[in-house]
Amino acid sequence: MDIRADGSDPQPATFAERGVAVPFTAPGLAGTRVRSGKDGLELVFANPSGARGTYVVPWAGVPDICHPTLHDLRLLAALQAGGGREVVTPAQVQAAARRVALQGAAGRAARAAAEAAEAADGTRLATTAAHLQTGLADAGLPPPDALEATLLARAVAELGIGPAAEDAPVPRALAALDGLRTGLLTWAASHPDDAAAAQLAAGLAMGAASAARTAMAAARHRNPALLLQAWRSGPGRVAALAARPAWLLDGWRLPGLLWAAASPGSSHALTDVIQLAPLPPREAQAWTGLQADPSAAGLLRRVLAARLDTQRIEGLRMSAPRAGAGRAGAQATKADGVPAPELVARNERLRAMAA
Amino acid sequence: MNAATLPEVQRKLVQARDEQMARVVALVDALPQRGDADLLIAPLRPRLARLAPGRPMTVQRLLFRPLDPVIVPGAQWRPGMAAVPRTALGCLAASVLARLGPAGVAARAVLAAVPPGPAPDVARDAAAQAGALLWPVATAALDGLLTPPDWTSATGLPLPCFGPVRDGVAAVLRQAARLAALHALPAGDAVVAAGVAAILADAQAAPAGLETLLAVLLSYGPAAAAVAKGLPGGLPAAALDAAVAQSLDRAGDVLMRTLPAVGLGAAAGHAADVAALVDAVDQPATRAALREQAGRTRQAADQACQARITQAAADLVPRLPEGSPPDAVLDDLAVDRLEGTARDLRRLGRAGRQLGHPATYDALLTQVAAQVGADDSPGLTRMDRLRLAELLVGAQAALRLVPGDEPA
Fold first, then answer.
1. Which of B12, B14, B21 is nearest to B51 (CA)?
2. Total number of domains in chain A
3. B193, closest residue in chain A (CA to CA)
4. How far is B298 from chain A (nearest CA, A)?
5. Nearest-CA neighbor of B221 among B183, B190, B164?
6. Number of other residues whose CB lies within 10 A of the CB of residue A73
7. Distance from CA of B245 to the nearest CA of A (A)
8. pLDDT tens track for B84-126
9. Which long-range contacts (CB under 8 A, 24 or more apart) does B3-6 make?
10. Which of A38, A85, B64, B358 is deepest in the core (most CB within 10 A)?
11. Which of B347, B361, B383 has the CB atom closest to A341's CB atom?
12. Which residues face A45 on adjacent strands?
């Protein structure tokens, strides 16, 4: 098996190169990203010590280095089904994860949550299509046929267009990210030892949210007539713009869930957030025009390494149980080859919370 | 209640149904002064451990909770033991509770604010918060406490036994907040070792009762190795050896009495603690007699784990409600319970692997997984069977054991 250490550049050039966060349930795979490689699907592991660089593992080699759950095996198979040579997108990962959850592979609670999310998506698609048709009719324009309205709605529905827009996936993810940022800042205000790290993480969350809002504003035409016009002149462009917020928010779900699960917060959960916080690739600046802090990657690494060292040597600051997604997660597979069942159960609960 | 009627009431209680017993225990828990009422529920403790009813936390129970692993029945306690006789708790509580002052009021308010019902995280946080208020004040109250006048009548122990018992209780309560924090950490974390070192370094400054504190630490698996290693400067060998020997004795008691009686999750926790203790003691640098004792405990624990797994495998049989059609599927709650049992079996198996031959436990769990994964398991979908088998033997092995095709 070929495991490559990739320490060349802490900040990938493109989103495709960075890969997409996947909601695996095995603790050893928490925070892992998937991307397409020349020989198929690849998994990108962050350096667990917080040091610079990543490890790249071909998907077929995953069972050799950790112990994926049944859910993870099915999810990997679903993602690999297309050959793994085309760019993997957040939407594809979300759809594959939904399919596997619907099979019950992450448990019945996750299956029920996936069923509810599937139904909500169907409703949203129908109301978005109806909203577009009504909007055009109100403007005195010939409405699109049902197929065109549905295709357009499918491209933009997750941005939240029309009634109940705030319930759509992107606005909900933004609200969750805002909640994480607020929680981190509140924690920073009352925990001086954690303040710098919490403020750093909050700053990264704010940067991601700002970028996603900028991208959403560019993609979400309030005026259905303008949206339809753009669609007719270039449907691919509309779909690509509409997909950008999900790329910009990708990877923030797990740290947000872990922080929420540790409500009102804990030092260990903060370490997990720092360890999992995604950095945007350079491509993000071209998409949004927002300047990313070039020192963020180095700062994040130093803060993480310092926190891991501190938690190793300090015995007295034992304030709360750590969620175990990051460092503990990576160590959680015992010698018997079965992932720690309690951590898998925790990850399945997180899956159910974010179907 | 007089001495003549007590055995009769105890006999009736032993025969009571689980829910009746739980009501009596709740009544006793609610008493401001438990006194003889504790004697009523003494014979019920093994059943209480198995049923684990959600008992409301009281100041008195919280006060001495850090000592739980070293509390022994009064009749079993002997001078020199790194343990606390249960009969002494009421006597000590009376003296300490009277001296809690505002801390006691604040702690009661914290505990009273916990909403009824299953919210273990809320209850745990409240207990930690209330405990942090109580334990330092209780420690100060115990330091220098004179022998209570009712000591001998309440405990049946001679007066000279009071000092060592008081010192042991105080030594543990002095470190109780740190002990609680230690338990909140994930096992195997380096912070546990650092935390143990900090506790021991601090405890050495006031060594009275050190053996009892060591015994409490040794009872918690993740801390056992760090205790056995001691401090760079060394712990008093006599205190450490005595605590280790008694902890191994107590482990034997846990294996004989507790493991078969408690729920599977608790059994897995106990087995893991015993395994860690035995591993910590069974080291080349350990005194030969202790290593031999650890070897015997290991053997007994190995057998107890195998027996408990065999006993628990019966709980993994799905049971449909009577009159269900043949193609009925278990509801989510029932499947959730089965998965919980499978997880606990896995944890127990993991402790067993540490104690005995891994292959023995792999074979045992594979047998259970094959049984639950079989086509004829009633009320389970193929995915239910796959997941149960996965929890026992891992995903790859489950796919080999459970018949049926995987989606492409």
1. B21
2. 1
3. A315
4. 19
5. B183
6. 20
7. 27
8. 999 899 889 988 988 888 988 898 888 888 766 555 666 777 7
9. B6/B36, B6/B39, B6/B40
10. B64
11. B347
12. A55
CB of A111 closer than 8 Å to CB of A351:
no
Query: If 0-12 CB within 10 Å is exposed, 13-18 middle and 19+ buried, where does residue B156 land?
Result: middle
User: Do the beta carbons of residue B46 and residue B36 sit within 8 Å?
Assistant: no
Ranges of each domain in chain B: 1-55
- Residues constituting chain A: 355
pTM of the predicted structure, to 2 decimals = 0.80
Q: Choose among B186, B195, B393: nearest Cβ to A328.
A: B186
For residue A291, what are the CA distances in angstroms to A217, A231, B58, B78? 17, 29, 56, 73
Question: How far is the C-alpha of A69 from the C-alpha of A27, rounded, in Å?
Answer: 9
- Taking CA–CA distances from A100, the nearest residue in chain B reads B407
For residue B168, which of B197, B201, B203 has the smallest C-alpha distance? B203
Select the residue of A112, A312, A339 nearest B191 (Cβ to Cβ): A312
How far lies B371's CA from each of A340, B350, B375, B384, in Å? 22, 20, 9, 13
Return the residue in A99, A108, A267, A308 with the most chain B beta carbons within 10 A, the one to mutate for interface testing: A108
- The answer to whether residues B134 and B104 touch, using CB atoms and an 8 Å cutoff, is yes
3-state class (DSSP) for residue B286:
coil
DSSP secondary structure letters along A271-298: HHHHHHPPPPPTHHHHHH-PPP-TTHHH
> Which residues on B lie below 8 Å from A72 (Cβ)?
395
Contacts with B391 from chain A: Cβ below 8 Å: 338, 341
**Closest Cβ opposite residue A311 in set B188, B191, B362:** B191
Task: Reply yes or no on whether the pLDDT at A319 is more than 60.
Answer: no
Tell me A333's DSSP state.
Answer: B
Q: Which domain holds residue A64?
A: 4-353
Contacts of A314 in chain B (CB under 8 A): 191, 194
- Look up the ipTM and state it: 0.84
Choose among A208, A196, A188, A187: nearest CA to A262.
A187
